[in-house]
Amino acid sequence: MAAPSKAWVTQADSQIDADSPIDSVLMTGYRDDLVHLREWLGLGYTAAQNHDHDGVNSKQVVTIADGAVNTSAKVAANVINTTHLIDANVTLAKLKWTTGSWSQILPDNLENAYDVTISQHSHNFRTDMSSSSALYYVRIMLGGGHPVNGQDIKMRVFAQGGAGITAYASWDYHIN
Amino acid sequence: MYIEVEHDKDGNLVGQIRCDDTLPINPQGKFFEREGGLPAGLKQARIQLDTLTAMAIEQGCGQKAVINSKGEPEIVFIDRCDFIRQNFKVDMTHEIPIPPGVKFPRELGMRSLVKKPPL
Description:
Chain A has 176 residues and is of the alpha+beta class. Helices cover 13% and strands 28% of the residues of chain A.
């Protein structure tokens, strides 16, 4: 940023003692010092008592050094809570998740049922078969009842195909 | 990586395979069960995985660029369970003891995997 338009002028003791004249050098110095201070404090901002860097009465603080914010301020080092995160800024890319997978070689052409334990926070379920036919299917049914927070749930996989055909299921789930 | 399988007496992975990156919240829970119980001749086992085997599985599955039979480049997806079934079998030479204090489903065995010999 540019330096103040008037350099700071220091008044010597000899200029302000009782016998010294009030001359243009002295008054210009005072004027320049006031301009210097005004520009330094916030030329383009609207003056306010006890300015608080709200962007109107003074410039907002641009950067804060790591660890320079103490715990009584709004944000301390390594402490971010939900009040600091706007919903729209939490995207899928910021969530940790992984993929679970299951498969079974079907023993016959009957419907077989398998119970698979999965995380309560599972989603994006996919099924597949190694061979396709209008008669073949893999379908998933999630366990009934309200899940208790933090517990696993059961996923029942129903698969019907033919002996030797492989049924697949996979899903994504959130992790810590 | 955690794996649970159904295998026959020779260690062949002929039944269900389940792969996951986390354990169930209930440490004594199995990864899967069958309606009506295990068929005769099958056992269910949790796999004790060493780092190199886990890396081999991780790197062997997922999306791959291959040259197909027509000589053209193609993107294929190799299922993790399929990769395990095609390349490994259960080591039936010994069962791994569960350390004291570790909660483990009582009906499961703990085994390791061995690479299948090339065809």
